[in-house]
Amino acid sequence: MIVMKFGGTSVEGAENLRRVAEIILVHRKRRPIVVVSAMAGITDLLLAAAHGAAARRDHELERKLRAFHNRHAHVISAAIADSKTRTRLLALTDQFAEELTRILMGMSFLGEATPRALDAVVSFGERLLVEILAGILNECGLKAKALNAQRFILTDDRFGAATPLKDLTYRKCRRAILPLVKRGIVPVITGFLSSTREGVPTTLGRGGSDYSAALIGAAIGAREIWIYTDVDGIMTADPKVVPEGRSLAELSYREVAELAYFGARVVHPKTVFPAIERGIPILIKNTFNPAFPGTRIVPRTTPSNPIVKAITSIGHLTLVTVEGAGLLGVPEITARVFDTLAREGINVLLISQASSQQSICFVVQQKDAERVRRALEDEFARERRQGDISQIEKQNGVAIVAAVGEGMRGTPGVAGRLFSALGREGINIIAIAQGSSERNISFVVSERDRASAVRALHKEFIR
Ligand code: ASP
Ligand code: MG
Q1: What is the pLDDT of residues 30-66, one digit of tens each?
Q2: Which residues line ligand 1 (CB under 6 A)?
Q3: What is the band of 345 on the pLDDT scale with cuts at 50, 70, 90?
Q4: Which parts of 122-271 are beta strand (E)?
Q5: Please, what are the domains in the chain?
Q6: Residue with the nearest Cα to atom 8 of ligand 1?
Q7: Separation of 42 CA from ligand 1 center, angstroms?
């Protein structure tokens, strides 16, 4: 068995859906289990509709609902030849659009978009598309059945980014999927969707379909997990920044986890964890170039690999610095800083503290920065008055650049080369962090220097 995941641009429109069906057909002997996310732009559209409803912008709401309905109806009319199937799918589209309308009207009435309601709203994109793809596969002569993963991927109730209850989910996955596979049926499963044990809809977070595919792969003991995207696998650097960047043949789980976290948006960062547990290889393949082998993600890479595999970066960030003599030898301050961030649900991308212990700095997304500053001012009001903390400062417009590679472990001189290369380009480094895993050296630069830093390091280590 293999898991094949398609999403976004790969499933956008009738032509691409037919292309996807053909790819599945070619690999039918491998007993594929298919995971799909919504068409490109649909999740964004549904979220915008929900926020519009909560803000009572009714005219906009109608337009968004019509767009949701029409985009799917259009695909159904173009991709499904059999009139009975077509009628059934069009009726389902009507029904889903009506259900959505009712939920959105409820939100408009209450004037609020809770995370719980948002998870219910976004589910319609995936729920509708699995039915459509299953219909197309049936027309291609493949027995296929649409499945809603809300039935078997069960999570806690952190709406918007829920955590799966692993053992229960694995058991339920096997029970829902394996009998179908045994009967020669291709399950077509909603990515990204899940629910609480009580059946309240949750989601695994934006881009979470990759993670769904990995969870399902681990649950059923798939031989491989194939994630289809619209590029030739994982690249040495963003080709928009480094035109000579190329696709990587092989990466380790650890390397890909570092890359995914730092903005190489090919695969959701959590995807590797279920795969690691069972040692299942993940392949990143291109829907629009299916013959290309793509990138293979495996437990360990061959030692002959280059020291630094890829350079990645993430922008629109803010560096926050908490500074003062009161930090010296007072461990509670650090604990309280990160407690405060956790309470606010802030994602911290990088942390650095010098051994002088006079200041601690960390990087967050720019959109969260003001909330972070206010929460810290609140938390440390007393220390601020007493002068133990002299300032809580934020610096907008920064980026993190990271060099990633398993070969960096225990290889002396990598940091030296890295910083020399940046120095030659006159790039100023604001903060530095290297995890003790030694697979990643990350540093903070001004957004202005981001692209030249990536290019300088690519030239130094890769090309
Ligand atoms: N459709 C969802 C999203 O846009 C899940 C995914 O694409 O993986 O975030
Ligand atoms: Mg994705």
Answers
A1: 999 999 999 999 999 999 999 999 999 988 889 999 9
A2: 7-8, 37-38, 43, 125, 191-192, 206-209
A3: confident
A4: 144-147, 154-155, 186-190, 193-196, 201-203, 224-229, 250-252
A5: 2-298 (3.40.1160.10), 310-461 (3.30.2130.10)
A6: 207
A7: 9
